[in-house]
Every structure is written in C-alpha cells, then in structure tokens.
Amino acid sequence: MASSLHSDSESEVMSNNNAELIRSYTADAEGYTTHYIEPTISKLPGLANPPDYEVFWEPNDAENPRLWSLWYKGVSVVTMSLGATVVSLFSTLYTSGIPGLEEEFHISRIVGLLGVFTYLLGMAIGGIVSAPLSEIVGRRPVYLVSLTVFLLLILPSALAQNIEAILIGRFFGGLFGSAIMGNSPASVNDIVSDTHRALAFGIWSIGPTNGPVYGPIIGGFVYQYLGWRWTNWIVLIIGGAVLALMCCIKETYAPAILRIFSM
User: Fold this and answer.
1) Burial of residue 18 (number of CB atoms within 10 Å: 0-12, 13-18, 19+)
2) Of 65, 69, 83, 262, which has the fewest CB atoms closer than 10 Å, so is most exposed?
3) For residue range 191-206, what is the model confidence (pLDDT) as tens digits?
4) Is the whole model's pTM more than 0.90, yes or no?
5) H helix or E strand, kind and range, residue 136
6) Number of neighbours of residue 76 by Cβ within 10 angstroms
C-alpha cells in the first residue's frame, strides 16, 4: 500500500513538472502572441533533483529579441544577409580565376573546377554540425568564430603555390562558412514576429540567392585587371567588414539568453 501511494505521489509530481515545462507565454509585442518555448531552469529537473528556479521573460523585457527596436531588427537581418552573401559569393567568384590557375599551376579545367566541389562539400558537412551547436552555445559565438576562421582560411588560397593548398583551403573554408549560411535564417526567425516574417525573410534572401550570381561578374573584372589571387582578397576585405558588423549584433537565441540569466 505504501509503495502504491508512493508511486501515485511520484506520478503526480512528474505530471505537475511536465505541465509547468510545456506552458506557453503570451507577449503583448507587435500585436501578436508567441507560443513560448520551455523555460530555462537552473539544473536538470527530476524527483531527486528538483529545479531551484525557472527563468521566464517579463512582459516588456528589453533582452527579449522579439522586443528589440525595429531599426535594430533591420540591422540584424541585413547583417545576416550580408554574411550569407559573402559565403555564397566565394563559391562562384572562384570560377572566374580558373584560367589563371590553369596557366600558373599547369592543371586541367576539371582539376580547377574541383575547387568549387570541395567548397560545396565542406558547406554540406559543416551545416550538420553548426546548426545543433548554435542551439547549445548560442548563435552569436558560432557566427563570430566560424566567420573569423572562414576569413583566415581564405589566406591559403590567396597565397597558394600549388593547387592542393587551394582545394584543401576551400574545403575547410566551406566547412566553417556554412555556419552563417545555415543558421542566419534561424536568427531572423528568432527576432521577427509572425506578422513580419515573410518580409524579413524576403530581405534576408536577397543576399544568399544573388551572391552566386554576382560572383562570376565581379570575379571577371577582378581577374582581368588584378589577377586570380585578388578574387580571394576581395572576399577577405568584404568579409572583414561583415565580421565587424556581426560583432555589433547581440545573441538572438532566446534559450541561450535565458540560460545566462539562470546561472
């Protein structure tokens, strides 16, 4: 009998815990209602280890990304779009310099085109890692680290003395560059309400969809007047400016922000 009562008591406590964790929060911001995510707690809840406290947004919490000012949201969306533009631009701008690679390294057109393949392969693999990582440590650290490493990995291509250095450098460049390409839409979703989401994504998509189009055009002029190595330096310069902007953008992932307050 005692065991049965104890079991019933445990079930009731667990049921109450689950009910608390899945409740929704209504925020009066921009005239919309958001179905809120689970609250951040001080430690893993359980019967033997109940949470010490839970952290929620206040109705007018300035730290809530959904309540940022309109101009700051706009700057954030444009910055995310520019970051994705740089990554996508680097994928096709390279193709304009392939004739220069053939001449300097005495390689075939097929070998030169491998630089596009290795870059896209790196992007495909990197996205598998960077997306879940951004939900563990937050989006901002992933952006800053990955974009910095991406820019550093342009140097081997710009200074390469053989085609192997270019192929390897572009693979790892794509690996790290994929973080901003894959996660920036999530940041847009973090800060924009349902009402304005279509507009925000329309603005964001201008960058990554047009970057591959602008690449060969820009690269053609750069290669003709400056040489194939400058197709790398141009991306490095533009990417450095975008990295400076990215440093001004705050964390957008709500659970990561709440986790800081729960410590």
Assistant:
1) exposed
2) 69
3) 998 888 999 999 999 9
4) no
5) helix 109-137
6) 26
